[in-house]
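Feature request disguised as a bug report, sorry. It would help if multi-protein outputs had a clear separator. Right now it looks like this:
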Amino acid sequence: MTNEMTTGSPLKSILRFCAPLLIGNLFQQFYNIADSILVGRILGLNAFAAVGATGALNFLILGFATGSCSGLAIPIAQSFGAGDTESVRRRTAQLVWLGFGITAVIRLICFFWTDDLLRLMNTPAEIFEDAYRYIFIVFMGVGATMLYNLSSAVLRSLGDSRTPLHFLIAAVAVNIVLDILFMKYLHMGVEGAAWATVLSQLASGIACLIYMAKKIPMLNLHHGDLRPDPKRILYMAAIGIPMGLQFSITAIGSIILQGAVNGLGANAVAAVSAASKVHNVVAAPLETCGIAMATYCGQNLGAGEYGRIRRGVWSTVGAAMLYCAAAFLFNYGAGRSMATLFVSPSETLLLQDVQRYLTITGAFYPLLALIFIFRNSLQGMGFSNEAMMAGVSELIARTIVSFGLVGSLGFTAVCFANPAAWFLADAALLMLYAREMRRLDPIRPEDLRRKKLARARR
């Protein structure tokens, strides 16, 4: 099922697209949470901290993969919005080569340097071995991650956010079953959690691929479509790769911060890991708005509906601000209780740190909402290089906090690191969005006067 987002109410179109996407995003979080809960309950606190300590490194590598997948599909959304089904098909075919290339590069880098990266992050000695064994398997299975994310990104670019959800729900169920089987009954340790993640993602990716081949005629490839087309590959890479790099640049800042957290000891690592799991679930609707904006802006750019892009962006900002208020109240009132899914309620000092982290972070959710909305809107319009500046801003802020404040202020500085990063990123994104929209759709003074007169008459 495809869905054009170039007609009707902008906010209704975005929210309709968001609904299944949000459920899918939440299941993606549960996908990760299942590992964490089962690792913590079955294997203990140190194993939980080991998996948590790989979070920033995981974001660095797999964030690049998933970010690139989303970016590579944006030209497909633009072609679909313009009604050019031939271009949709040919651009989709070139994803095969881009997917193989990105997978090969990631596996090569991780095969040789995963160990060094964990050491660079100052991973505590007592959890180092488990952290390495877990993340190395996940990295070697990056092909499964690419398969699912590329196929689901293509479906989303055509306005179909429901089908990837169905396959993702099934994958979560498979992941949980394999977690229990591998860790509890086959005694595979953290390696079992890693294998469960890779195999369940592979299953969901294959299911998406089969669905696309059977149910969407415009994606039925013709003879010669798979022949490498350097011009198309370079155009798609010019949008997709910077989007992946933006995630990686952001992740480098997170790795630097993780290194500072690691220096505070295993309990601090566990506190940040547990708090981050809660935060990721609570912030999922904001991330979903961002993903929706990439498709929305891509389709409307292809259709030449620049004014509609403006209306959609600001309507989504308003809706996101309302959610941020509710999210802060949840963090303040229920965040600590939710964190007991990952750590024992008897860890009172650790849970106090979790509560502090969630309360401070939640107070700045409006800044996070603006990042997701404006960054993805710019990327959807093809300005991936410009959007990458947000990642540079986040990197600068997290580096300053990590080296300048964590040593003296300890865990409190860790709590303010993300808000500081979001503030700097927003400063860059808002200026870039205003500049690029003026270039795409300059508003003449006489148009503004005409609109004011029309409003006055009403």
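(second protein starts here, but nothing in the output says so)
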Amino acid sequence: MSFNRRRFVRASSAGAALAALGLSAGRAGAQGGPLDTVKIVTGFPPGGTSDTLCRRVAENLRGGTYTKSALVENKPGAGGQIAVQSMKGAPTDGSVILQTPASMLMIYPHIYKNLAYNAFTDVTAVSQACTFDFGFCVGPAVPDSVKNILEFLAWCKANPDKANYGSPAAGSVPHFIGVLLGQAGGIELKHVPYRGSAPAVQDLVAGQIQAVSAPVGEFTQQANAGKIRFLGVSGAARTRFAPNVPTFAEQGYKDLVFSEWFGFFAPGGTPAPVVQRANIALRTALEQKDVIDGLAVMGLEAKSSTPQELAMLLKESYDRWGPIVKKIGFTADS
């Protein structure tokens, strides 16, 4: 399907969705017109993946039928919790939208005893934003002869003092992937938490740590330069961002299939018509070629959804991670 045809289909879909609300595209503006300003809130600082995604989407919202102006508000801290918590009591008119990785909603409720928000009542699903897989890489601190996960685990057994790996944060999906790989191989891998993927990859390249588990896009530049080596990726199928790298499942670890997603959420209690209108605007923005291409640079696959699909995905993700976290035995206090 050509890009022009995609735009036609998208416009037709948006019109159909508005019609379902009893609105034409023109009447949608007539019923109050575009919002003056929309804030997209992210729990991470400027320059990172989450922030970049928000800014690309905001650029495509500005001046359209949804809002005259769109800006990104960074609320970093507590691993993304502060941004989610800020939705409590926020306006429910569509002027405030949260963009968050799934972990804050699907994993944090299982590891924090006194989480300051409820993942199902304090936010309202609007649209999925993108998906991505995780990679497991080694650097110069591991011999070149180690080329896959099985060989890495065997090397760790022979060198238990060097059986280390880093991740972007304690309690993150990459952290748990390392734990589960170690359990599958019958060895405990020592986890070293970092404040984000970038410093972990820097230490990996420098030989300061043996391995790192992180989103695939965080590794591709250094891997393509030959400075680090992919041992495996976490998706159900190989990722187009590292097509020659086998999945964990291909290497015999059938249960280690993990992807994560980012999503857009309105404050809890936002009326359905407001959610639907925001959904149409966000889905249209996510289908723009500049957004798709911009996300691909970071190893992200743009992917929108209906509010109902995102709500179902959140529930499925939450239910899946509960038993995993319990098996690992990790809490934020551990």
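Even a blank line would do. Unrelated, but nice: Residues 163 and 189 are 5 Å apart (CA to CA).
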